Every structure is written in C-alpha cells, then in structure tokens.
C-alpha cells in the first residue's frame, strides 16, 4: 500500500475513534438527561395521585386530580396503582413486578425502574398513620423518538465525517508527498547513461531538501566510481591494442617466412587467429566502455538504415560465408526520410552485425530473415532466426555484460556483443525487443527514431 493511502487511513481511523467516543458520550448523556427528566415528571404525578389517595374527603381527592390534569396533563400510557398495604403479597403478584421493586424506595425517596421501554416509579407515602405505596408507570414516547432521532443523526454525522476526513487525509498526504514523488520521478530517470544529472534541490529547509541533497551526494560518488571503472576498462583495452597489433603483425610476417617448417607455419597461423579474436574482444570492450557511460556523440552523421543493413550482410558474407541471411525489403517505407537516422555509422554497424552474426551462429547457419519497416516514429529492423532460442527465464539477462545463456556451451563467445548493441541502440534513443522460444528461434526487433522524429 502506498504511504499516502496509509497516512489517510490512519488519519481516518484515529478520527473515527475520537468521533465514535464523542458520539457514544453524547448519546448516553442525552439519554440519561431525557430519562431523568421523564422520571421526575412521573414522580410529581405519582406524588399527587398518592396524596389524593390518602384523602378521606372525596372532594379534596377530586381537587388533587383536577390540579394534576389542569397543570400537568397526562403522560403517554400513564398508569398509577395504589397499594393500600405494601406488604400484601396478592397485590404484589397482581402487578407482576420483581419483589426487589417494592423494597427499593427508602423513606420519602422514590425508586426508579426502567423495564421494557416503560418507566416505573415506586413511592411510599405516609399520613396520619396510614401508609400506602404508589406504583406509577408511563411510556416516554417523545423521549424515545428524540433518542432515535439523535442516534440517526449521530450515525449519519459519523459517516459524513469519515468521508470528509478520508478525502481530506488523502488530499493532505498527496500534497505532503508531492516533493517525494517528484524525487522518485527524477531518480527513476537517472541511469548509467546520464549519471551527470542531479535532482533539483529546493531550499525548503526540511527533510525533502535533505533527501534531495543526500541523493545528489550519492550520485556524485557513483559518478566518480563509474568514471574510474570506465576509464580503467577504456585505458586497459587501449593499452592492449598496440602490443596485440604488433604480435599479429609479427605472426603474419612469420607465416610468410621462406623455408619455414609446416608445423611452425601452423603455429604462426594459430597465434594470428587467436590474437585477432583478442583484438576483437578488446575493441568490443573499449566500445562498451565508451558507449556505456554518458555516450559520446562525436562523429554523428545521417545513416541510411537500408544501406547499413546491406553492408552488415556483406560483412556477414565475409565472416561466415555459409550464412543464409536474406533481407526483406517488402515493408520498406515509401517515404525515404523514414530510413534515415542520426548516429554513429561504425557503432550502428557493429550493433546490427552482432545481432545478425549471433542469429547465424546460434542457428548453425539456418535461414535468417532481416526485415526493415517503419512506423510513425521509428525505423524498425527485425532479425529472425530458427536457432536454439533463449530459455525464458534468461531472456532478461542477455544484455548484461559477460552473460551467456545456459544452452550455448557448444558455441564460442564472450557475452559482450549484445550489451554493446544495447548500449549503442540506447545511445541513439532507440530500443531493442527480444522474443524467443527454445529450439524454435529468436527474433530481435530494433527501433531507432528516424532523424526527423528526433527533432520534431
Ligand atoms: P556471445 O558472445 O555469447 O554470443 P552476446 O553478447 O552476443 O554474446 O550474446 C549474449 C547471449 O545472448 C549469448 O550468449 C546467447 O546466450 C544469447 N543470444 C544472443 N543472440 C542469440 C540468438 N540469435 N539465439 C539464441 N541465443 C542468443
């Protein structure tokens, strides 16, 4: 879950807890207050009814009732029972109330009970040695309605508050995380090819500023390390070249020496061949180092991809004369400008040669089809073979330097060609896609932006 959502949820849960506690408090406080008011009103009526019941004089009794009706009115379902003898078991049973009910009132102080939505009041009244007990009951319909309304109001209020709090929480956390998202976006765009880029540091004097500075410091250190490593590979490859050229020259000269025994000639030939391979390897490593880091863009020119592919085919014919590479021009775009890319001819040739020669090598010279086409932005070169394929789980690694798939044991190679190709294509703002099935074949699709699309 994203941190923004987490914050919004925690914020909402906290607010829910607080609002819920407050609502419960309000509900019970209101309920207590309404019920206490109602009991009080019932007690007053009960007291009047009790005193009326104690009057011997019937006209006084009716005055009591008259005052009660006139000034207090009746409560809903109001009932009063006068127990002339509170200890009388028969009367108690008739009322079907718990016996503790009749023992509860202490002296003049009435007892209150609430049972099945009905409020009960029990009152003892004594006068002129006469003692009676009044049991009054009524239904607080108005109070119950009030409580139902309050409950509904609190529930609706709670739901609305939650929606409001969650929305606000999301907006709030979104706003707080804006700079972090900007940093993530910027950091994502930084790789070995543009390690010189830095994050924009806004002087906000907060954690975000500290984070941006920390990233930039880390990028400084990474850049220095990358540059050192690259310079090392570059210099080493460069330094290897001269002695290798000398050795291959000497071997070539040795082979042509007159009167040389056959065995020695063969040795010179072996030295020559192996040194050639080493030269190729050091040249590839040098190119890999040069293209892998903030690609150098000198010697860039307009390159026609169809012509380039033809020259790659010529090179393949020289290196692997038994190849079956065919070029399919059927989907060539009518607009010739879609075949022109801006780039380094030598590097692009090396990139496509690697792909085509690999296809010949890993298919033991079975047919390889090269097709050139274009879409709205890219000129597309598709190289398809019917070779050994690449195991599914290894496809993602074939552009990693020195990686070789597990099914290549019987083929020679160093795992440098494709990483170099990848770097070259990326340096030209293009991309390479690979589709492969073991024992069926492999398809490399290269996309290069044509010259005018780069500037448009
Ligand atoms: P290598 O010198 O091993 O050919 P590359 O860098 O050119 O090195 O290729 C890397 C790996 O990618 C190869 O070792 C091989 O496993 C795989 N690969 C490249 N092209 C093909 C292909 N056309 N068919 C099958 N596997 C291939």
UniProtKB/TrEMBL annotation:
<keyword id="KW-0067">ATP-binding</keyword>
<dbReference type="InterPro" id="IPR005467">
    <property type="entry name" value="His_kinase_dom"/>
</dbReference>
<keyword id="KW-0418">Kinase</keyword>
<keyword id="KW-0902">Two-component regulatory system</keyword>
<dbReference type="InterPro" id="IPR003660">
    <property type="entry name" value="HAMP_dom"/>
</dbReference>
<feature type="transmembrane region" description="Helical">
    <location>
        <begin position="153"/>
        <end position="172"/>
    </location>
</feature>
<dbReference type="Pfam" id="PF02518">
    <property type="entry name" value="HATPase_c"/>
</dbReference>
<keyword id="KW-0547">Nucleotide-binding</keyword>
<feature type="transmembrane region" description="Helical">
    <location>
        <begin position="7"/>
        <end position="30"/>
    </location>
</feature>
<dbReference type="InterPro" id="IPR004358">
    <property type="entry name" value="Sig_transdc_His_kin-like_C"/>
</dbReference>
<keyword id="KW-1133">Transmembrane helix</keyword>
<protein>
    <recommendedName>
        <fullName>histidine kinase</fullName>
        <ecNumber>2.7.13.3</ecNumber>
    </recommendedName>
</protein>
<dbReference type="InterPro" id="IPR036890">
    <property type="entry name" value="HATPase_C_sf"/>
</dbReference>
<dbReference type="InterPro" id="IPR003661">
    <property type="entry name" value="HisK_dim/P_dom"/>
</dbReference>
<feature type="domain" description="Histidine kinase">
    <location>
        <begin position="235"/>
        <end position="452"/>
    </location>
</feature>
<keyword id="KW-0812">Transmembrane</keyword>
<dbReference type="InterPro" id="IPR036097">
    <property type="entry name" value="HisK_dim/P_sf"/>
</dbReference>
<dbReference type="Pfam" id="PF00672">
    <property type="entry name" value="HAMP"/>
</dbReference>
<feature type="domain" description="HAMP">
    <location>
        <begin position="174"/>
        <end position="227"/>
    </location>
</feature>
<dbReference type="InterPro" id="IPR050398">
    <property type="entry name" value="HssS/ArlS-like"/>
</dbReference>
<keyword id="KW-0597">Phosphoprotein</keyword>
<keyword id="KW-1003">Cell membrane</keyword>
<keyword id="KW-0472">Membrane</keyword>
<keyword id="KW-0808">Transferase</keyword>
<dbReference type="GO" id="GO:0016301">
    <property type="term" value="F:kinase activity"/>
</dbReference>
<dbReference type="Pfam" id="PF00512">
    <property type="entry name" value="HisKA"/>
</dbReference>
<dbReference type="InterPro" id="IPR003594">
    <property type="entry name" value="HATPase_dom"/>
</dbReference>
């Amino acid at each position: 879950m994203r941190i923004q959502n987490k914050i919004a949820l925690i914020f909402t849960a906290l607010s829910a807890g607080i609002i819920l506690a407050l609502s419960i408090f309000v509900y019970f406080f209101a309920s207590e207050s309404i019920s206490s008011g109602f009991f009080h009103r019932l007690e007053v009526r009960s007291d009047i009814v009790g005193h009326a019941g104690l009057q011997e004089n019937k006209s006084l009794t009716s005055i009591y009732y008259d005052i009660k009706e006139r000034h207090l009115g009746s409560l809903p379902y109001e009932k009063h029972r006068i127990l002339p003898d509170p200890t009388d078991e028969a009367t108690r049973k008739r009322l079907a109330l718990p016996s503790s009910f009749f023992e509860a009132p202490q002296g003049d102080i009435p007892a209150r009970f609430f049972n099945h939505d009905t409020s009960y009041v029990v009152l003892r009244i004594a006068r002129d040695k006469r003692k009676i007990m009044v049991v009054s009951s009524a239904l607080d319909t108005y109070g119950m309605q009030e409580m139902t309304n309050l409950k509904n109001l609190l529930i609706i209020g709670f739901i609305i508050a939650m929606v409001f709090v969650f929305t606000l929480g999301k907006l709030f956390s979104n706003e707080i995380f804006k700079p972090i998202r900007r940093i993530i976006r910027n950091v994502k765009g930084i790789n070995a090819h543009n390690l010189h880029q830095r994050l924009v540091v806004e002087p906000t004097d907060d954690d975000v500023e500290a984070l941006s500075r920390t990233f930039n410091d880390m990028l400084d250190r990474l850049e220095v390390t990358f540059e050192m490593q690259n310079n090392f590979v570059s210099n080493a490859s460069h330094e290897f070249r001269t002695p290798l050229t000398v050795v291959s020259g000497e071997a070539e000269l040795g082979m042509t020496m007159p009167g040389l025994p056959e065995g020695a000639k063969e040795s010179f030939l072996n030295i020559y061949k192996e040194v050639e391979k080493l030269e190729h390897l050091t040249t590839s490593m040098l190119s890999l180092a040069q293209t892998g880091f903030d690609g150098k863009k000198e010697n860039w020119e307009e390159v026609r991809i169809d012509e380039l592919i033809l020259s790659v085919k010529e090179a393949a014919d020289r290196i692997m004369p038994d190849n079956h590479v065919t070029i399919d021009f059927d989907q060539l775009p009518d607009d010739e400008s879609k075949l022109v890319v801006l780039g380094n001819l030598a590097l692009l040739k090396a990139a496509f040669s690697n792909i085509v020669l690999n296809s010949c090598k890993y298919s033991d010279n079975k047919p390889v089809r090269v097709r050139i086409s274009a879409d709205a932005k890219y000129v597309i070169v598709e190289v398809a073979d019917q070779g050994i394929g690449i195991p599914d789980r290894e496809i993602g690694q074939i552009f990693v330097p020195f990686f070789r798939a597990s099914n290549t044991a019987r083929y020679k190679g160093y795992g440098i060609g494709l990483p170099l190709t990848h770097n070259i294509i990326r340096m030209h703002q293009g991309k390479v896609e690979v589709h492969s099935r073991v024992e069926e074949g492999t398809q490399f699709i290269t996309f290069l932006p044509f010259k005018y699309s780069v500037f448009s």
